[in-house]
Amino acid sequence: MAAKARNHKERHADPVSHRGAAQSPAAPSAIERVRLARNPARPQTLDYVNYLFKDFFEIHGDRRYGDDGAIVAGLAHLGRTPVAIVGQQRGRSTAERIRRNFGKPHPEGYRKAARVYELADRFGLPLITFIDTQGAEPGVGAEERGQAEAIAHNLEAMVRLGVPVVACVIGEGGSGGALALGVANTVLIQENACYSVITPEGCAAILWREATEENVTRAAEVLKLSAPDLLALGVVDEIVTEPEGGAHTAPEQAAHTLGNAIRRHLERLMKLAPAELRRARERKFAAMGSAFLVSRRVENGESIS
Amino acid sequence: MAERATKEQTGQAPAEDIWVKCPGCREIAFRKEVERNLNVCGKCGHHFRVTVAQRLAITVDRGSWREMFAELAIGDPLGFVDSRPYPIRLEQARKQSGRNDAAVTGLAAIGERPVALGLMDFEFMGGSMGVVVGEKLARLFEHALKRRLPVVVFSASGGARMQEGALSLMQMAKVSSAIARLRDARLPYISVLCDPTTGGVAASFAMLGDLNIAEPGALIGFAGRRVIEQTTNQQLPEGFQRAEFLLAHGMLDAIVPRPQMRDTLARLLADLIARRPRALRR
């Protein structure tokens, strides 16, 4: 990470264009990675919970409005360490997918998450999050109940936590709806997962008016949403490898690799004091994109900085 | 997400016309007269969007404004190209606005009360938030913390800036983190949501004020109207995502008409710091 940051400073405002994945002929293209990330057979939060943790006790509801199936939360044991878990769950069968709103949380889902963040903080439990959403639900009910406020609140709540926070991007990391689980000390991303400010479809529709397959492919490319690109940008800290062909081809093996990475980072983070953990998180996000800033004189502006 | 807004939607008074048509009541009025009225329609009270310069002129004490961090600018982190390369888009917006990006930050006085002030420029790429907007606002909050100043931010933004990809998204966390520190120091932050405040800006600092105040009729929400219609096939209720709708749903503290904004801010800032321990006061 430190080496990465230095690297950035040297390159200054240079683009990261055409680096990483796209160059190796064997590596999947950006749109192929998006498809892998969305593959219905890909392991989801509850799969990883089953493979990696013991004695999962699910916590329901936001104590305000309802229980959002798109977000699962609870307490579990990682080895002998009790931890808190929050993740999006897309669901697999049609009935489950509908019940879980295809992994697109409503405000009550984010408020449930916030409740578990604060619970973890109060009792010193490390927090592990799993990010797997196309984005927060865009609907009338979500707007009426304050989707924007719910996400904003979680960003601030996560910053404040005095416990280790490890976020794992395991599928699609869609915009603010993903980041509301992502303000972590360490952000891990699986090889074929992605993380973006907008879906390639949404981006294509805005830029080229039509989300044709060709436009969506282009959008996926220009958004730099694949794991290697995100690592180069400093958005994620580490890429977790997947089995040949993607995590869905050997879920247990994918879980094993991810579990090792989570444990390694937790071990390191658990040595830090609460104030240090928060400070580290603040510094990490304060530095996001700073390497690409330049100083440019403006004629009408008076600067005293 | 910053969707492109047409002239019709922005309700912007065209600079060269002497007449403006109010999108609220369809009445035609003298542009000068509307401007004298703080760009509020004299007939129906429709609030036209105002530029950063106009906002400063009607909000801060004369001669008190000192801009900070104006020189911050972005390169091209993604090498982003749509129909044109991002640097060319940026250059055009910079030429038109005379500034480097979509936020302006600085120090000012409102009713003789010193504040750290941030304003978003909707005319600069739809007020979209990229690294510069995030950095400027985060530095503004940090500066306010150091100098023990309250913060006021006027938001007007379509959301995160697509052309800077996930880095834009991360600015939501960057600014929220700075707000958390200000809040811990018990310094007030008043968020003023102007038309429009949506996407990643609504879902971060605009909704994190100790008080969240909106201008009448301002469009405020997480998802764009078009996205909601397309993805849900839901009929959107009357006045959906307008300030009055959010107030009715408990998402805003108040709606304050533009002519009362300045005095309201001065009064609220005074109230919020009046009972603070002397050591924390300026």
Task: Spell out the key features of this protein.
heterodimer, A: 305 residues, alpha/beta, 2-enoyl-CoA Hydratase, Chain A, domain 1, eight-stranded mixed β-sheet, 9 strands, 17% strand, disordered N terminus, B: 282 residues, 2 domains, two-stranded antiparallel ribbon, globular
Write a structural description.
The complex is a heterodimer of chains A (305) and B (282). Chain A has 305 residues and is an alpha/beta fold. In chain A, 43% of the residues lie in helices and 17% in strands. Chain A has 13 helices and 9 strands. In chain A, helix 5 packs parallel to helix 7 and helix 9 crosses helix 10. Chain A starts with a helix and ends in a 10-residue tail after the last strand. In chain B, the strands form 2 sheets. In chain B, strands 3, 5, 6, 7, 8, 9, 10 and 11 form an 8-stranded mixed β-sheet that branches. In chain B, strands 1-2 form a two-stranded antiparallel ribbon. Chain B is built from 10 helices and 11 strands. Chain B has 2 domains: 33 residues, no CATH class; 232 residues, 2-enoyl-CoA Hydratase, Chain A, domain 1 (Alpha-Beta Complex). Helices cover 36% and strands 19% of the residues of chain B. With 282 residues, chain B is α/β, with parallel strands linked by helices. In chain B, helix 5 packs parallel to helix 6. The chains are: A alpha/beta (305), B alpha/beta (282).
Task: Name the helix and strand elements of chain B from N-terminus to C-terminus, one letter apiece.
Answer: HEEHHEEHEEHEHEHEEHHEH
- Compute the separation of the termini of chain A in Å: 29 Å
How many β-strand runs of chain A?
Answer: 9
CATH superfamily of chain A: 2-enoyl-CoA Hydratase, Chain A, domain 1
The most extensive contact between chains is: A-B, 69 and 82 residues
Mean pLDDT of chain A: 91
Based on DSSP secondary structure assignment, what is the total number of beta strands of chain B? Answer: 11
What oligomerization state is this entry in?
A: heterodimer
Query: What is the N-to-C order of secondary-structure elements of chain A (H for helix, E for strand)?
Result: HHHEEEHHEHHEHEEHHHEHHE
Structural class of chain B: alpha/beta
- Percentage of residues assigned to helices of chain B: 25-40%
Shape estimate of chain B? globular
